[in-house]
Amino acid sequence: EYKIELRDARGNLCETVPDQFTYTIGITIAGQPLLHDISIALANNQRHVVLMKNTALPISKRSVLHTTTYVKAGDSGNILKIPVVEGGNSFADRNPLVGYLEINGENIRRDILIGSDVEVTINMDESRLITVSAYIPIIDEDFEIKFNSEYPKLDEREQAAYAEQAKQRFERIREQATQAGSLEAITVITNIEKENSIQELDTSLLANRQGDKSALARCQQRRIDIDAKLDRIEEQMKWPALVAEAESTIREGREIIQHYGDAQDKSDFARLAAETNKAIASNDPDFLQQRIRHLSELTMQVLMKQPGFWVGRLELLEEKYKVDMRDQAEAEHLIVQGHRAISNGDMGSLKDDVYRLYKLLPEQLAEEVRAYGSTVGKRDS
């Protein structure tokens, strides 16, 4: 750091602007890192990470999302809400709320339709001031809000509703853990009770009504802690059932493949069964569910090559689901036609009749019937 002095002919000190300057040699210090992920909470309670933890400040990122609600121009009751949260939990409401960018129907010139694009930009400067802006192309308008590093003023009714949901969820999971006899889950439940976590939700809400300005923040953090622990309990209780399902799928599938499959089917099944056993050892629920699905799909593909499978499908649709068909006369015609195809050994016509019967079912019921025999699904691998 260098100071600047300017003197006149008589040696008097004169004012200078600036009166000093700094010159740095060598390594400079980079911007401070972001301590936690900054994300947008989505309608399905997942989070969309915009600013990632450990990124140097300042930082600005843009994301393109879409609306899940209809906002009518001029209607104050219609609001597009974009919540911003801070933290690393995959469930949005398990992270502290930074604030909302709200777009009120009163403040827009034209309606915002469901599914409209929203270009959201989040900026954080070195002082941790967060700016959230949204551009909506369909109405060609921009909206913006700024949040400081402190969390916003929380809404008492909203926090009370979250607290009530957490209490009800706690009671439900405690009962499930007791019935399942899960020692790990019961231990976590007991610790929650010993810590008086559930009672503290009500205590904090009461303290807020009595003027304690930090009470709602305590209520929010306690509720987040409870929900995170309950999440872990649910995962623990799911795992034994998932393992049992995997073992059953291998056992029953092996019998079908050995009886009906060709050499390639048997080779594929052996490979998938080995991968499923590895997934069990990995304790990874998502990986195990994926392997179970692949095993089931292979087994079903082999079954669908057998005439008996389609005979069984026809009988199931006739005996259990005929009354639900949208067109009873057409359903009766297809069932009679299907039985005739069986008598004639015409498997091609039988398959066609079964597919057409599926189409007569209400959509929700059709999915239910297909569920345990489906060979299609969302691509995730």
What does this structure look like?
By secondary structure, the chain is α+β, with helices and mostly antiparallel strands. The chain contains 10 helices and 12 strands. The strands form 4 sheets. Strands 6-5-8-9 form a 4-stranded antiparallel sheet, with no helix packed on it. A 4-stranded antiparallel sheet has the order 7-10-11-12, with no helix packed on it. Strands 1-4 form a two-stranded antiparallel sheet. A hairpin with a 5-residue loop joins strand 2 (about 5) and strand 3 (about 15). Helix 1 packs across helix 4 (about 215-260). The longest helix is centred in the middle third of the chain and has 46 residues, at about 215-260.
Quaternary form: single chain
The Rg value, from CA coordinates, equals 31 Å
- Biggest sheet statistics: 4 strands, antiparallel
Q: State the share of residues found in helices, binned by percent.
A: 40-55%
Describe this structure in a few short sentences.
The chain has 381 residues and is an alpha+beta fold. The chain has helices spanning 156-180, 183-194, 197-209, 215-260, 263-282, 285-303, 307-321, 328-344, 347-360, 363-371, and strands at residues 2-3, 6-7, 13-14, 20-21, 38-41, 47-51, 59-66, 79-86, 97-104, 117-124, 130-136, 141-147.
